[in-house]
Amino acid sequence: MRTVAVQAKIIIDLPMISRSRIQFVMSLQRKKVRDIEKLFVIEGDKMVREYLMSGKPVRYLIAKPEFIGSIPAGLADCADETIPVTFRELAKISTLKTPHNAIAVVPVPEAESGHDIVPVGLCAALDFIQDPGNLGTIIRAAAWFGISEIICSNECVDLYNPKVIQATMGAFLNVTVRYGDMKVFLEKARKQGLPVYATLTEGEPVYDTGLTDTGVILLGNESRGISGELMQYVTTRLSIPKFTTARFGIDSLNAGMAAAIVFSEFARRGYSK
Amino acid sequence: MRTVAVQAKIIIDLPMISRSRIQFVMSLQRKKVRDIEKLFVIEGDKMVREYLMSGKPVRYLIAKPEFIGSIPAGLADCADETIPVTFRELAKISTLKTPHNAIAVVPVPEAESGHDIVPVGLCAALDFIQDPGNLGTIIRAAAWFGISEIICSNECVDLYNPKVIQATMGAFLNVTVRYGDMKVFLEKARKQGLPVYATLTEGEPVYDTGLTDTGVILLGNESRGISGELMQYVTTRLSIPKFTTARFGIDSLNAGMAAAIVFSEFARRGYSK
Fold first, then answer.
1. Last residue of one domain, picked from the residues B55, B72, B107
2. What pTM, to 2 d.p., does this model score?
3. What share of chain A is helix, strand, coil (3-state, %, to 5)?
4. Is A33 near chain B, with CB under 8 Å?
5. CATH (domain of A156)
6. Is the Cβ–Cβ distance between A103 and A90 less than 8 Å?
7. What is the extent of the structural domain holding A16?
8. Which chain B residues are within 8 Å of A240, Cβ to Cβ?
């Protein structure tokens, strides 16, 4: 019994990842480093497992031996390198308060140039969304409601920010997110005769305004709304009616919630057909 | 010119709040202390201003002199004590990465006992919502859609957690949030013949299910959903249809978004009437 206990202690404390490797993974929290290395970090058992199952390339799989042992045979081999770590090591690398059991360092997919972006089907366009949690939940809502394309203005927070990836809960696997000049993009939408729906404080109630199944849903900054220079491209002004006469604390909805409600309403129209 | 510069330096660094007071305000981040002191903290210029304007009692108004000078005459007098502070002092007290200009320490309103809770109109019931951001955004969505009553199971995160208050963006002023035994509450709803709508992964599509303007909208825990023992009270199982066939990263919607979509759908029915 004594021997077993001693062995267990050794396994738990055994360092298995170099300090420079830990520092490298941590450095990927910064956009500058991600841009140079063309790598980003996915964290959490469920998200890492789903990423592995999607068959996309993995540079490093950094995980507790229990996690590595738990995934289907062959999946860990998808990683160029699998690095077993202790919980303490994982906690060092993690951006989360309560680290999970696995982190994957994966390549940033090749991005198309902003000027090549052409509106397809029903897509969402985000003007200056700054909060990582908001971008992440918008991507999650878009994936749920079948919006497979999101155009971000260059001022939006980076998709590969760890907090964005975390908030998507894996939905980034199903939505193409591209960055570019929003004016150039909306100009193209206009040339194609596509409607551009803006969500505003003042506008037609989204519940009874005609909505099409192609077009652009334009969402603005968390506090400033949609940039003035983009308003010329808007063909329909939508708003989410407020069902209260309260005077305080009801200025607006959270950007993620507003997006989810509008996406839901577009989806409902298609659903009811 | 030199004298002016020196004076400005002195004003900026002048300590205006005692260390023990700073520690007291910071201690209110802990539920145990809030329960004893019956005080909580509101942070942010807009929220503090709206709280003052609502005419509710304020124990301490802790703010930069510029903020105190900017609010309408008489409003600062609503506080038992107004404490001007430097930015550095405010940053110490703040729970935010980027502190604002004002913090208010205010009394927790007298709570009714959980057993006195009776369902009224259309209300939301939250079972084991643990994430402060989720509770806050659910309150914000409820206020927007005219749901003025939220019942939280005793396992839910505390309303007066600073992150919850922050995420409400002031909407806590317009929604009565009460804690109690969820079984007792739902038992009462059943006795009154009120419908209990549950939002689930499997259920009737919320878009074309009959919805009433009185009843209980029951929302479950972020990962585990609604507790098994509560399902006996559910009269209608609702779900938000998924508009994708993707295999990965689309297990669920964020709890706040799901709540917002369901509240919106109840409101829309009333709106269209």
1. B107
2. 0.90
3. 40, 20, 35
4. no
5. 3.40.1280.10
6. yes
7. 2-107
8. 144, 264
